[in-house]
Amino acid sequence: MATQRVLQWRAFARTWWLYDAANQCPFVSAYRVVPYLQGKHKPIFHPLSDVGDHVVVINTKDIAMQADYWRTFTFFHHTGYPGGFSKASAWRVHEIDPTRVMQLSVYSRIKGNLLRKGLMRRLHLFPDDKIPDEILENVSDQIRQVQPVAKRLDQYSEEEVTEFPKFFDWPEDFVKDGYKRHMTRKKPKRRYTV
């Protein structure tokens, strides 16, 4: 009987989750983060109950957007007064505040009801991996990243580079860096007949 009570308190407790947003799309990451804010991973979830957890998102300055979204995606805002409409592209919003793009993508993912402000209060955003100690000591688990991040070539050791299997060896007389493309022939002029 006592074990059931412990399990029940564990389900009701608010845990703190850590999510690394480096090289992740903020719109896709919002779909991963919001269920933890709402508490959908818990067996006691109900749409009208506030049982969600805290989510700490780090490295929001290193987010990545697909295709041409930095230039073409636009955030809109209206104050409610006449002439209060404003819009800004994603790169501009990210340049002003590195956490704002992630915040707006999570905010737009949450259903617009009375619980939205409370859920957003439990979202903690940091532009880099420097987290205050009082928050870091509460973090108990980590949310898996949406997109796998590949290692750069400079992050591999010298042994790993030499042990990597080669597809072919370059010939001895081949010059890799000396090859330059020259335009040998000019385009012929087109003669249009009427």
UniProtKB/TrEMBL annotation:
Tell me one Pfam family matched here: Ribosomal_L13
UniProt keyword list: Ribonucleoprotein, Ribosomal protein
Q: Which GO terms describe its cellular component?
A: mitochondrial large ribosomal subunit
Keyword Ion transport found: no
The molecular function terms in GO held by this entry are: mRNA binding; structural constituent of ribosome
Stored Gene3D superfamilies: Ribosomal protein L13
Look up the record and give one Gene Ontology term from the biological process aspect. Answer: translation
Q: Which domain of life is it from?
A: Eukaryota
| PANTHER family associated with the record | LARGE RIBOSOMAL SUBUNIT PROTEIN UL13M, RIBOSOMAL PROTEIN L13
Q: Which family does it belong to?
A: Belongs to the universal ribosomal protein uL13 family.
Q: What is this protein called?
A: Mitochondrial ribosomal protein L13
Q: What is the lineage of its organism?
A: Eukaryota, Metazoa, Spiralia, Lophotrochozoa, Mollusca
